[in-house]
Inverse folding.
């Protein structure tokens, strides 16, 4: 017999609030406050967070990876939409054992030694000027940082987590741009436990937070999985909105309609998984995310093995010219019943799922510390 958790019953009871009450508090009491980038949300109960697998981090230190690096949960389930950029690529681990931390520390030291050796060899052979490589101080943090011309690499160990950061820029601007950015990065970063929403301006990432002045280019996409309902994953992405260049970019591809179409097409693996709206016309409905105009959609997902699931997706196009922070936002909640059934838990039902998804979406807000 499958276990029926109390979360679903609690959701249904808490969501039977009057319209006036729902406006005063967008999610039921007892949910957990979280933050992603420069926005916040509330999550119904305890959760896990997707992060970079340690195998990928070890490969990266050894120079064996390039391009897309996937994220997952600690049991291996994919969290493939998770990705972080902060003027460069950010990779963050799950909580690691002492033995694994030692492995990574050795890999980081070896990577730095290879870099210095390679540059020394190149400078001996070069007739076109010398490559600059130098170690950079990261006190009071633990780890390593160095730059090769304007290629910056920072490796940090904090609270049993590991962060790998890479940023590149014009070589001639290290003193004027690269170095001030690095110093600000080191001064602002610190470990952040799950559920801790800092009361200062900055960017939330899984297990870390970077305090800043609110202007740094970034995107943070984080995937959460409910512990009481392992069939439910929640994703939120906050991205600094940018201007569209009409000479090189198609403005129609930045609309909420196009982004919604693209999400469901990609999620359906271009036809391998059948996705069909559970709403009659209009299948995309107007709503709000963090006070911005948005679209929402609700779909039935028929997987290759015949299992039927549900998905909710909402997106808002930001405004780079707004006086207040208005980012590009993407949000989804997906049910994959298999992950609950495998643990003897009854998957969440369709109506409870939709109410939960819309309640979480309604909780997404710009953090009050975001500079205007």
């Amino acid at each position: 017999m499958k276990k029926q958790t109390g979360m679903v019953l609690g959701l249904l009871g808490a969501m039977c609030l009057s319209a006036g009450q729902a406006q005063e508090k967008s999610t039921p009491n007892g949910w957990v406050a979280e933050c992603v980038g420069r926005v916040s949300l509330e999550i119904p109960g305890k959760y896990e967070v997707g992060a970079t697998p340690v195998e990928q981090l070890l490969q990266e230190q050894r120079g064996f990876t390039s391009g897309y690096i996937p994220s997952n949960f600690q049991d291996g389930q994919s969290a493939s939409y998770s990705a972080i950029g902060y003027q460069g690529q950010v990779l963050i681990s799950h909580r690691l054992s002492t033995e694994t931390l030692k492995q990574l520390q050795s890999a980081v030291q070896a990577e730095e030694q290879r870099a210095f050796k390679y540059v020394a060899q190149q400078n001996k052979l070069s007739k076109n000027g010398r490559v600059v490589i130098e170690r950079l101080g990261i006190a009071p943090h633990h780890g390593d940082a160095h730059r090769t011309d304007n290629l910056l690499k920072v490796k940090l160990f904090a609270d049993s987590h590991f962060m790998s950061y890479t940023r590149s820029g014009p070589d001639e601007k290290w003193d004027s741009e690269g170095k001030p950015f690095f110093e600000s990065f080191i001064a602002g970063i610190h470990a952040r436990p799950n559920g801790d929403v800092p009361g200062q301006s900055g960017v939330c990432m899984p297990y870390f937070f970077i305090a800043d002045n609110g202007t740094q280019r970034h995107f943070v996409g984080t995937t959460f999985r409910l512990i009481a309902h392992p069939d439910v994953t929640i994703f939120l992405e906050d991205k600094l909105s940018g201007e569209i260049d009409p000479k090189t970019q198609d403005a129609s591809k930045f609309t909420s309609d196009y982004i919604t179409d693209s999400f469901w097409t990609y999620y359906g693996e271009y036809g391998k998984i059948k996705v069909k709206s559970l709403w009659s016309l209009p299948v995309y409905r107007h709503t709000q995310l963090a006070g911005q105009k948005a679209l929402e959609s609700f779909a039935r997902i028929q997987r290759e093995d015949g299992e039927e699931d549900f998905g909710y997706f909402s997106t808002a196009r930001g405004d780079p010219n707004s006086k207040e922070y208005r980012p590009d936002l993407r949000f989804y909640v997906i049910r994959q019943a298999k992950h609950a059934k495998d643990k003897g838990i009854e998957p969440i039902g369709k109506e409870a799922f939709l109410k939960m998804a819309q309640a979480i979406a309604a909780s997404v807000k710009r953090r009050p510390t975001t500079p205007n």
DSSP finds eight helices and 20 strands in the chain. Confidence is low (pLDDT under 50) at residues 4-27. The first helix runs from residue 6 to 15. Residues 133 and 148 are 4 Å apart (CA to CA).
